[in-house]
Amino acid sequence: IEAAVSCDHASALQPGQQMISHKPCVFPFTYGDVTYYSCISTRSDFDWCSLDKEFQGRWRYCTGLDSPQCVFPFIFRQKAVHNCTKEGYILNRSWCSLTENYDKDRKWKQCSPQK
Question: What is the domain-level CATH number for residue 85?
Answer without folding.
Answer: 2.10.10.10
